[in-house]
Each structure stands twice: as C-alpha cells, then as structure tokens.
Amino acid sequence: MGEFSDPIGQSVSFWRFPRTRRWSERTFFHLGGIGLLARDLARAAVSRWEFGEVLRQADRLGVQSISITNITALFTGMVLALQTAYSLSQFGGKLFVSRVVALSLCRELGPTLTALMVAARVGAGITAELGSMAVTEQVDAMRALGASPVKKLVLPRVVAVIVMMPALTLLADFLGILGGFAIAVLDLKIGASFYITTTLQSLEVHDFLHGLCKSPFFGLEIALIGCYNGLSATGGADGVGRATTTAVVVASIAVLVTDFFLTKLFMALPLGIN
After folding, report:
1. Domain count, the chain
2. Cα–Cα distance for residue pair 169/84, rounded to 1 Å
3. What is the separation of C-alpha 135 from the centre of its chain, rounded to a whole number of angstroms?
C-alpha cells in the first residue's frame, strides 16, 4: 500500500516524495480544521443569533456582490447563445438556442458561476478581514474577554452567505437568460416572442430547484473556508495574503467538486429536482 515499482524493479515509497507528503499533510490538516470549525459552528447555532450582524453581513457579502455575479451571468448567457447558435446551425437547430441557454443557466452555469464569483470576492474578503483581526490579536482579545469568535464572527457570515446565495443565483439565471435573449434577437435574428415562448415551454420548476438547491451548500463551503483560513492566519500581512490566496483556491475547487456530487445526488433521488 502506498508503493510502486520503478522501471528497474526497485520498490519506491509514495511517501518518499517530500512535496507529495507535504501536500497531503496540508490537505488533511486543512480538512480537519474546517471540520472542527463546522462542529463549533453547529454548537454556536443553537444559541441566540445576532440578527443585526447577520443583516449587516448579508448586505456586505450578498447585496454588494450582485454587480459582479450579474455581469458574469449576463455575458455568459450572451456567449452561450452565440456558441450554441454556431454549433447547432450546422444541423439546422438554430431555433433551439433559447432552450439550451435557459436550461444550461438554470441547472448548472447559473449556480456554479455565481458560486465561483462569490468565492473570489466573499471568500477573499472574509479571509482578509478575519486574518487581519487574527494577526493583530483581536481574536485572542475577544477570547480573553469571554466572547466566542465563532458566535460573533463566523456564525453571522456563514448564515448571511447561505441565505444570499439562492437570491444571487436566481438573479444570475434571469440576467443570463436576458443576455441570451438580447443576442438571439439582435444578432441571430430570432423573433422575440418565439424566444420567450420556447424558453417558458422548456423551463419547469424543477429546473430552477436543481440549481437553487445547490446554492446553500456552495455558500456554506465558501463561508466556512474563508472563516477558517482567516482565523488561522499567522505571520502578519504576508500571512494574511497567503491565507487569502489559499481560501479562494480551496473554495473554488470545493464548489466544482461539490457541484458534481450534488448533480449526481439530485439525479438519483426522487425529489422532483432531477
């Protein structure tokens, strides 16, 4: 186990590669730390919430992210319409552009791209904010005063991101479909009424639910990873920068991996969202 033979027949241990060993150690340490933070978060969630702080974080982390997520969705819908029309025109399927754009955005691209943009903006922001507090010993001072950093700092941010992600996804779906509509009408010369009719005929409630049900999981991952990397940051400004980079990379990978497994799960379960 953990060994393979090289071309000359010698047994080489997988763990003798220092870079691989360090990467594995960091990965397991990171996963363990996030798991412990999730346990502490679950314990803090049963106590009284500070709804004022949750609303403030929802504005900072959710409402102020609308511009970047909507711009991303708008131009994704436009590009998707162009590429779909180019591909399907060879088979006489240009009129199916509306269905491809609507279903692709609502079921997959809308929630995933929104989560990636939120991971870049919100994940980095949470990590930088909490990391600055950690390296300046504000978090230690909070513990010394008997306050819980998880309850005061982590819980409001996690709840805010979880609540705002479905709303951001729904807006992204609408803007993406609107971008595809603009390209279809202005560039591809497809009738506006035809585009709207075929879009409404192709979309059902479970198509929206398929994407919206993924969003809270994405929000939980992004907020937890950002909070963990922020609270564990050390080494001054340089350490905060490294923690921020790590948070964005790990959150983006987590979103993509989770998206695959959630898609498989929703297709397997008879919940009306497959």
Report:
1. 1
2. 22
3. 26
Whether 220 is in a domain gets the answer yes
**pLDDT tens, position by position, 149-171:** 888 899 999 999 999 999 999 99
pLDDT, one tens digit per residue, over 11-35 is: 445 556 677 777 777 778 878 888 8
Which tokens go with 249? 């990379």
Whole-model pTM: value is 0.85
- CA 80 to CA 85: how far, in whole Å? 8
35 falls within a domain: no
Q: Which has the closest alpha carbon to 156: 59, 86, 73?
A: 59
Question: Which residue range(s) make up the domain with 180?
Answer: 50-268
Contact, 80 vs 109, CB < 8 A?
Answer: yes
Quote the CA–CA distance of 181 and 195 in Å, as a whole number: 7
Q: Which residue has the tokens 């409404």?
A: 200
CB contact at 8 A, 244 and 126: no
Spell 193-208 as b/e; 16+ CB within 10 A means b: eebeebbeebbeeebb
Helix or strand run (H / E) with residue 219: helix 215-231
Nearest Cα neighbor of 37 from 157, 142, 137, 119 is 157
